[in-house]
């Protein structure tokens, strides 16, 4: 593509066509700059090409968080942007979730429930 553009008279100031996989596997695509993307975080951009250690990548950070909320969902329900399907039936609902299910408009939780 670069050769075609240059043949057509385009004179780019900087040529950068290599993303993370190309940066790691196709040296002739590097030109002036590369866009390393997810590889900068130590993650293999293409697991089918190799694991992070194959490319000398290592994690640069760890993200940790406390669980803030757990909800029950019936088996085979979908959740998240990736439509993950639940595999097992819900646990026995708590008094708060049973009450909230019956009266979703309740303004305050029952005594002993979450605040």
Any descriptors?
single chain; 115 residues; mainly alpha; two-stranded antiparallel sheet; 3 helices; 17% helix
Task: Please provide a written account of the structure.
There is one protein chain. This protein has 3 helices and 2 strands, in the order ααββα. The longest helix is centred in the C-terminal third of the chain and has 8 residues, at 95-102. It has a two-stranded antiparallel sheet. By secondary structure, the chain is mostly helical.
**Average pLDDT number:** 79
Q: What is the end-to-end distance? A: 59 Å
Query: What's the story with the biggest beta sheet?
Result: 2 strands, antiparallel
Computed Rg: 25 Å
Give the SSE map:
Layout: H1 2-7, H2 20-25, E1 78-79, E2 84-85, H3 95-102
Antiparallel strand pairs: 1-2
Structure at a glance:
By secondary structure, this protein is mainly alpha-helical. 17% of the residues lie in helices and 3% in strands.
């Amino acid at each position: 593509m670069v050769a075609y553009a240059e043949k057509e008279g385009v004179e780019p100031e900087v040529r950068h066509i290599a993303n993370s996989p190309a940066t790691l596997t196709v040296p002739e695509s590097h030109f002036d700059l590369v866009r390393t993307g997810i590889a900068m975080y130590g993650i293999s951009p293409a697991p089918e090409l190799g694991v992070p250690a194959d490319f000398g990548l290592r994690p640069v950070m760890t993200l940790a968080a406390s669980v803030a909320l757990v909800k029950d969902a019936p088996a085979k329900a979908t959740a998240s942007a990736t439509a993950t399907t639940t595999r097992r039936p819900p646990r026995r609902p708590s008094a708060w979730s049973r009450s909230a299910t019956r009266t979703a408009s309740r303004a305050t939780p029952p005594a002993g429930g979450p605040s």
